[in-house]
Amino acid sequence: MTDQDSTTPLRPLRRRDFLLGASALTGSLAAAPLTALANTDWPTRPVRIVVPFAPGGTTDILARTLAPELTKALGQPVVVENRAGAGGNIGADLVAKAANDGYTLLMGTVGTHGINKSLYSKLPYDPQKDFAPITLVAGVPNVMVMNTKRAQELGINSVADFVRYAKANPGKLNMASSGNGTSIHLAGELFKSRTGIFMTHIPYRGSGPAMTDMLGGAMDVMFDNLPSAMPHIQAGGLKAFAVTSAVRSSALPDTPTVAEAGSLAGFEASSWFGLLAPAGTPPEVVNRLQQETAKALNLPNVKERLVAQGAIPSGNTPQEFGKLIEAEIAKWAPVVKASGAKVD
What we know:
The chain has helices spanning 22-31, 34-39, 58-74, 89-96, 110-119, 148-154, 159-168, 183-195, 207-216, 226-235, 258-262, 283-297, 300-308, 318-339, and strands at 47-51, 78-82, 104-109, 131-140, 142-147, 174-177, 200-203, 221-225, 238-243, 271-278, 312-313. The protein is α/β, with parallel strands linked by helices. The strands form 2 sheets. Strands 2-1-3-10-4-11 form a 6-stranded mixed sheet, sandwiched between helices. A 5-stranded mixed sheet has the order 7-6-8-5-9. It is globular.
């Protein structure tokens, strides 16, 4: 991986891409084929949501937040199954090749459906042709964090301090991520290229295992998704230096953006998460899942919980989610190239 300056700024993921507007929800409900829904007996058995990362990360948190609400709405158990590995590719490929009957779903991410197509020379699935988009669940910023005690030991209290230390001690800092090609990884790679520093990248099989080593002091820095990092920031185990979004997060209003804190104009590397089914899943099943997910995300207790963790709930239509995936594949291709990241 190289550390040359990135010449391709990231296009910010606008808040409107993620917020669930009343008009969009009403439109999606009206567009659903109600006659078809009335004639189907789906589901008649448990539905599983495959999380392509280990437990404990934001992908897992969102799936486990939705599962109980979908269980109530569908009248069948909705279970979460973790299938980690290869930057989310193992779990995504499992769902891509599953029966298209609505009983196996994927909690996809910006990595599995935006970044990996450019990062991996041999991707085992096609993020567009092999899937039926259901709905965007939420968008979240990433947050640059260090183990609080480690930061104090090194005298690092800000992004500027971090960059100064890294330049004076090249290669002495380790950067943890949830896997090669994830937004957590590429946010760090973009930071390296924009600041001209070098850190050793250590990929894990999900944010949860990486966070365990962060809290234990084995890792120095991580650009984690905000919902999975927030409890540790609040508990004092992690020190937050900056968020990677274009604007500050309402969950951490006093924490600057990387662009502000590092004088890095245009720096932005947000994450998103959404439900997908295998291609060919009946439209009435896709629409039912979109409707019930949108309703769940709009429940006060669910919405408040996600917003407090730094997530922006969505619930948009399958068509809107499909367009977002198309745009994200195009957006991340030059970023991957500029970062020098590549996985064979």
